[in-house]
Amino acid sequence: MPQLLGSLSFQAPYYIGGLLAYLLGSIPFGLILTRLAGLGDIRAIGSGNIGATNVLRTGHKGLAALTLLLDFGKGLGAVLLAASFGPDMAIFAGFGVVLGHMFPIWLGFKGGKGVATAGGVLLGLSWPIGLAAAGVWFLVAIVTRYSSLAAIAACIAAPSAALLILHRYDMARVVGYLVLLVLLRHHANIRRLIRGEESKIKLSSKP
To answer: What is the model's pTM?
Structure first.
C-alpha cells in the first residue's frame, strides 16, 4: 500500500466519497430502532446518546446489540466500498462516516461518540488494528464495566498496534487522527471518570 495521504491531491471524487460516507454515518440506528420498538426517544434517557451503550440502558439487550452491529457495520461498509477506489478514498470515507455518526445533519449535528463506527473503520482499514482495538475494548469493559474507559483504552491501542504490530508509521498517523475524534467526544466522560462519577455498563434498566 502506498504511503497514505502522502501525495494526495484533494480532488472532487474524494470530497464526494467523504460526503456520501458522512450521509451513511448520519443514519441514527439507535434512535430509529428504539422508536420502532415503542421506547420513545433514546435521547431522553440515560446519557442522551444515540449509541448502543445508551440503548442498553433501556434494558433491551437485543436492541443494543443490533445498534452496535449496525453502527459498526456502517463504518466497515463505508471503508470497504471506498477501498475499491484506492486507500486514500477509504480514509476519506472512514473520516466521513465517523463524523456523520458524531454530527448527523438529521439531528441538528448532535449524534453519538463514534466508538462502534470508528471500530468498523479501523477493521476496514487494517484488520490487525481493528482486532487489537476491539480486544482491548472488550477486556477493559469486562474488567471495569466502564464503556468510556474501554473506548479510551481502545483509542490508545489502535495507533499503538499500527506501530508495534504493523510497523506502519503512516497508518499510525491516520489512525491517530481518527481516534482523536473519538477521544475528544469523550471529554465529559473523562472528567466524570476522574471524579469517580462515571456510570458503569448495566445489563438492564434497573438500578
So the answer is: 0.90
